[in-house]
């Protein structure tokens, strides 16, 4: 089965202009064209496009995505290089998740802080609360706020 740019974009949840841009940037060498020059997407292209979107979602540059695609088009001789790309992206995503978890922990702490202050009618209550009275899940975030990083 074949798909137009609009149909494939809808399947992927992206705009048609995004697919056109990917093509312009050399990310879609596998996409066929009609005699009139229109892009014709095949079912097999869907997986490629999902991988491109996945790599883009990890923050990978289009230049590096193009490098991955070029390697994939070269065939089995590049398996090790492609594996290294995905291992590197996986580590980058894990680090992003770690940083986001720290951010979420701090936001959770501040929600608790202001909910406690609102109930007490003053920020002095949570601010002056002894560490042992602060719920355990918020103690680390409070410590991070109170400590100055040392070089």
Briefly summarize what is shown.
This protein has two domains: 73 residues, Multidrug-efflux Transporter Regulator, Chain: A, Domain 2, CATH 1.10.1660.10; 54 residues.
Give an overview of the whole structure.
By secondary structure, the chain is mainly alpha-helical. It folds into two domains: 2-74, Orthogonal Bundle (Multidrug-efflux Transporter Regulator, Chain: A, Domain 2); 93-146. It contains seven helices and three strands; from the N terminus they run E-H-H-E-E-H-H-H-H-H. It has a three-stranded antiparallel β-sheet with strand order 1-3-2. Helix 1 (5-12) crosses helix 2 and helix 5 (79-120) packs across helix 7 (136-146). The termini are far apart. 11% of the residues are buried. The mean pLDDT is 92.
Using the alpha-carbon principal axes, give the shape. elongated
The largest β sheet comes out as:
3 strands, antiparallel
How many whole angstroms does the radius of gyration measure? Answer: 24 Å
Number of spatially distinct domains = 2
* Percent of residues in β-strands: 5-15%
The portion of residues assigned to helices is 55-70%
**How many helices does DSSP assign?**
7
Structural class: mainly alpha
DSSP strand count:
3
Q: Strand order, main sheet: write it out.
A: 1-3-2
**End-to-end span in angstroms?**
60 Å
CATH T-level topology of the largest domain: Multidrug-efflux Transporter Regulator, Chain: A, Domain 2
């Amino acid at each position: 089965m074949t798909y137009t740019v609009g149909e494939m974009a809808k399947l992927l949840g992206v705009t048609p202009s995004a697919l056109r841009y990917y093509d312009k940037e050399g990310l879609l060498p596998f996409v066929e064209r009609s005699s009139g020059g229109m892009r014709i997407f095949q079912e097999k292209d869907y997986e490629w496009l999902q991988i491109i979107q996945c790599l883009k979602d990890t923050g990978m540059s289009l230049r590096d995505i193009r490098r991955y695609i070029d390697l994939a088009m070269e065939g089995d001789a590049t398996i090790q290089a492609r594996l290294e790309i995905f291992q590197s992206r996986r580590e980058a995503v894990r680090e992003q998740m770690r940083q986001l978890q720290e951010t979420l922990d701090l936001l959770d702490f501040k929600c608790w802080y202001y909910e406690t202050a609102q109930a007490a009618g003053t920020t002095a209550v949570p601010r002056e609360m002894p560490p042992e009275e602060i719920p355990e899940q918020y103690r680390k975030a409070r410590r991070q706020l109170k400590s100055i990083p040392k070089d």
